Amino acid sequence: MKSHRFRLSLARGERGATIVLVAFGLLIVLGFTALAVDVGYVLVVRNEMQNAADAAALGGAGALFPSTPNPNWSAAEARATATIPMNKATAVALTDGVVQTGYWNLTGSPAGLQSKGITPGTRDAAAVMVTMNKATGSNGGPVGLFFARVVGINTMPVSANAVAVVSYPGEVSQGQLFPTAIPECLFMDDRYWNSVTHEPINDPSTGVPFLLKLGSAYHYDPCNPGGGAAEWTSFALDENNVPAVRDLIANGNPTPLGIGDNIWIEPGTKTSLYKDVPIGTTVLIPVVPCVTCGKGEQPIVGFAAFYITDSVGGSGKYIEGHFTTNYKVGAGSGGGPNYGAYVPPSLVK
Fold this sequence. Notes:
This protein folds into two domains: 12-166, no CATH class; 171-333, no CATH class. The strands form seven sheets. Strands 14-13-21-20-18-10-15-17-19 form a nine-stranded mixed beta sheet, with helices on one face. Strands 4-3-5-8-25 form a five-stranded antiparallel beta sheet, covered by helices on one side. Strands 16-9-23 form a three-stranded antiparallel beta sheet, with no helix packed on it. The chain is 23% helix and 31% strand. By secondary structure, the chain is an alpha+beta fold.
């Protein structure tokens, strides 16, 4: 009898312990569920804040140019600031953010936003940085939590940061390039291009940018005053014939091309092509180390904006024009040197 009572008491004790364990387990599960709900909600709000920062930075960067040699800092700051309230977080319009402008080094050295007062290098791009906070005194205060309140955590601050730049083409999409390659030496020694202000140098006799006659190396030496060797290029394919180059004049590069990609240099005058050259327009042309090295491949080292004023065949065989600035490439990504062209704004952070 005593043994039966003992076993009954033991069973009741086990059931009681099991209930306690189940209750404790449920509490843990509910705690993790509550944590997941709150963390998920905070992440949603954080994404909303990041989207707002991205939009404001891109909007501001779009107002930096055209304005060479000095970016339009004030216009960029005003547009970025005006873009902030066009976005929402927690279904409420945002009201404020911190907008900063300066230069951003595309190689990451130095890191962070640099002063507007520096002399920018070839890899320093004008930038807009936007920092968004949802915290005490900013954008309606920190994010309100739900289940974390039971442990005394009622709110959580959220922040987001974005940097957008207007950069110079490091890669361009198809259809952006004119099939003439020019040598890198045209941008050296501050002969035709100011390496500090990143704009063409004026001819003292005219007060306007130096006119260049770009022609085959058979007729022109590299970087001569008033001229410079340039050759037709068939881009990624070796197509040294008039119909192929004529099609490239009309339609541009058939595939995307970027710095470091090799293109074919096609020596020769191809006199009949000069009548197909568009006059009175700005084109984007690839820059390579050498155009006098004969037929073969050369790596792209940059992209230059060139305004064509004339095209002469016959005994002349040259394209006349001058370097220019503020040429907006239709599509591409940044990372190249500043030779007068820029790509649409892009996020770098």
